[in-house]
């Protein structure tokens, strides 16, 4: 492959023009200061202009707006490109060693990873990076782009967004369930960010094993704890929150949400489960381990939201598939497949007074803000 360069100095070189330098039967995907990406024969290739301090010759991949996630193994790299799906990267003419990337990540981020502590999570640039070391020599890095959290009205219709926020403020215990990468944390962040922005006097405590959630404005306190139950207890005892957010729970952590639930504090978390049925069954089984008898999970679970992920040749689509509300004995759908199901059930589920005031007044505030934001965003999109 013949490539023309204009040298700015000894360390930097720029491709001119890159369109003329890639094979004729290839498609240029992106060009940025660190390099260019193109696809040929269903394989992604990188032409590096300049090495990144951590990613080395892969810098162009991680500087691209088109790339959403990447898996780096010893002999294989796979990336997810927006509107194109997952595609393998050609390693031809690239000097890539996973251990070198991990070493540079450790040096730049300070993440604690060793064979004694073989897993770690770091942030570099606009990427969240999970690192895994194996004693057998199997190293890998999984990078996920940290995206700007969209307004909740870009995830759910404005009217449903308002109803969901009202239900949370009854108060309710809310589980957002779905498979990995289905948008659970994005929805959680959008909900919490909206509440923090509209009601800045609410003290919102966030408990996580690793700090991932970050919010601007509002009144937020963070507790980072490997033991979720201990983090929740600390928050309840010393932080005295008005709303509790647990970034993610495993099944065995569910019982730790009982204390804030009994105290009447709105509580939100995410949970890995492919379906609502599987989530309820798993959480119910876990609850029986900690409580005597046969506890009814619906007594402690008020709302369950299910997110979905579709992985096709055209890309990855994430969306809210369903919202269910518990009546104490069962769960009933209020939103399915993009459509409201039972407005009467919704209205019946809302009390006259919420955790933060009169239901009608809060609803008017939410409608005024969310609908206006939704309309403004649509107008801006058309102008753009």
The fold-level CATH name of the largest domain is Rossmann fold
Kindly report the average pLDDT value: 88
Number of helical stretches of at least 4 residues: 10
Ranges where pLDDT stays below 50 over 5 or more residues in a row are 1-15, 379-384
Biggest sheet: strand arrangement: 14-13-15-16-12-17-18-19-20
**Which CATH first-tier class of the largest domain would you pick?**
Alpha Beta
Q: Would you report the number of β strands? A: 22
Q: In the CATH classification, which architecture of the largest domain applies?
A: 3-Layer(aba) Sandwich
Number of domains: 2
SS-based class: alpha+beta
Rg of Cα set: 24 Å
Shape: globular
Strand content: 25-35%
Level of helix content?
25-40%
Distance between the termini: 38 Å
**Sheet having the most strands:** 9 strands, mixed
CATH superfamily of the largest domain: P-loop containing nucleotide triphosphate hydrolases
Pfam family, one: T2SSE
Organism: Thermofilum adornatum
Domain Bacterial type II secretion system protein E: 172-285
Family: Belongs to the GSP E family.
